[in-house]
Amino acid sequence: MEIIISALVVGGISAVLAAVLTVADALVNNYGEVNITVNESKSYKVKGGSTLLSTLAGEKIFIPSACGGKGSCGLCKVKVLSDIGPILPTELPYLSPKEKKDNIRLSCQVKVKSDVSIEIPEELFNIREYLSTVSSIEDVTHDIKELFFDFEEEIRFKAGQYVQLIVPGYGDIKGETMRAYSMSSQPSVKDGVELLVRLVPNGIVTTYVHKMLRVGDKIRILGPFGDFFLRETDSDIIFIAGGSGMAPIRSIVLDMMEKGVERNAYYFFGARSKRDLFYLEEMKEIESKMPNFHFIPALSDPLPEDGWEGEVGLITDVVDRYLAEQGDEASREGYLCGSPGMINACISVLKKHNVPEEKIYYDKFG
Ligand SMILES: Cc1cc2nc3c(=O)[nH]c(=O)nc-3n(C[C@H](O)[C@H](O)[C@H](O)COP(=O)(O)OP(=O)(O)OC[C@H]3O[C@@H](n4cnc5c(N)ncnc54)[C@H](O)[C@@H]3O)c2cc1C
Ligand code: FES
Fold first, then answer.
1. Is there a single domain that holds both residue 114 and residue 217?
2. Which of 202, 225, 248 is the last residue of a domain?
3. What is the CATH number of the domain that holds 191?
4. 314-331 exposure pattern, b = at least 16 Cβ within 10 A, e = fewer
5. Which residues are registered as beta bridge partners of 270?
6. Which CATH number goes with the domain that contains 241?
7. Most exposed: 42, 97, 125, 340, by fewest CB within 10 Å?
8. Residues lining ligand 1, judged by CB closer than 6 Å?
9. Is residue 184 domain-resident?
10. 254 and 357, same domain (yes or no)
11. Which pLDDT band holds residue 25 (cuts at 50, 70, 90)?
12. Is residue 21 part of a domain?
């Protein structure tokens, strides 16, 4: 108990000190106008003093982010070509030795205080901000809502990618908050995006979406982001998802169906009990249209009243059983989506069945 209290006190003091230093920095230092050079070809005159992430966003260059700049997702990496000072302690957990050597930095942590030159993938210039109108909100389970956001202009994305939803401040939450959500609609739907949002207790954005967002509301959305999409190979596909991890896999499966992709695909969907299952009818219908697609829902804790006759057990055990029965001769690829714990456990199972680590793709929702 004492250890926890000490940790909280130290954490609290650090947070206060960080806030004081930020305010002092802003008051004492006026960095004036500085130049950001991007990919050695484009140059932007900006006001110095803010983070690289928000400064670039001000110029409509949107770097991937799932945590909205809190330093907790590690997605906002950019290669910095000029000297912007040593790597900060808050960046260290997210940078591999190679990334450190290559001057990769977390753009939400480093500040633009003088001229800086950076390198980013060209496709990031295609990321746009869309003003959307919420056109439908449906409960698909007790804690997951399916929402459709109408866009005023068309969006182009790859099945499996995600967008960032920006919600306004409410209650004690000052200012906007941004979080990542994968498209559950397929790319042929261009007039907006469908998202599946699971309520996280006390979560800022999910509480807003579940309790405050209404049909007709206007919401800003950035995207598309991410490299979780189907690779064009002949390998068998192992999809594994839990909860709202359904979203990107559904988008990929619908896209495969529309494009007539006939690869063998096994989709393992893990849930606790029947009330956590959804889209069963739709998946059955897809199975009937795609002979090589197999949907395998599994319940870890079915209730007696569920009358469940399908697979029972942790999704890892179910996948393990299926792959063992099939034998490990086939070339396979894994596409995983859900909580970090589930994904880590599934990676071990796939590796056990000879799926090479570099052929396992995932988005960790957490
Ligand atoms: C690529 C990607 C795609 C994703 N796609 C989806 C998707 O399709 N559907 C989906 O539902 N989710 C998705 N997520 C997860 C999503 O981005 C959010 O992380 C999630 O919805 C929670 O957001 P929130 O703002 O409600 O919670 P947050 O406010 O971020 O809180 C998360 C948890 O942390 C706790 N917490 C917050 N602040 C603190 C603190 N200071 N101290 C201690 N605890 C704290 C909260 O109580 C809560 O339990 C995706 C994530 C990624 C990275
Ligand atoms: S935006 Fe999440 S770590 Fe930088």
1. no
2. 225
3. 2.40.30.10
4. bbbbbbbebbeeeeeeee
5. 242, 298
6. 3.40.50.80
7. 97
8. 66, 73, 162, 179-182, 195-198, 200-206, 226, 244, 247, 363, 365
9. yes
10. yes
11. low
12. no
pTM: 0.87
- Asked whether residue 87 carries a pLDDT value surpassing 60, the answer given is yes
For residue 115, give its domain range. 28-123
206: exposed, middle or buried (C-beta count within 10 Å: 0-12, 13-18, 19+)?
Answer: buried
Measure the CA–CA gap between 313 and 243, rounded to whole angstroms: 15
pLDDT bracket for residue 7 (50, 70, 90): very low
Same domain, 258 and 332: yes
Residue nearest ligand 2's atom 1 by CA? 69
Q: Is residue 347 one of the residues assigned to a domain?
A: yes
Query: Relative to the CA of 65, which ligand 2 atom is closest?
Result: 1
**Single-letter amino acid, residue 221:** I
How far apart are the CA of 31 and the centre of ligand 2, in A?
23
**Does residue 52 have its Cβ closer than 6 Å to ligand 2?**
no
Same structural domain, 34 and 70: yes
Say if 159 falls within a structural domain: yes
Digit-coded pLDDT (tens) for 34-60: 999 999 999 999 999 999 999 999 999
Count how many domains the chain has: 3
Query: Residue 293 carries which DSSP code?
Result: E
Question: How far does residue 366's CA lie from ligand 1's centre (Å)?
Answer: 6
pLDDT in tens, 123-157: 898 899 999 999 999 999 999 999 999 999 999 99
CB atoms inside a 10 Å sphere around CB 143: 17
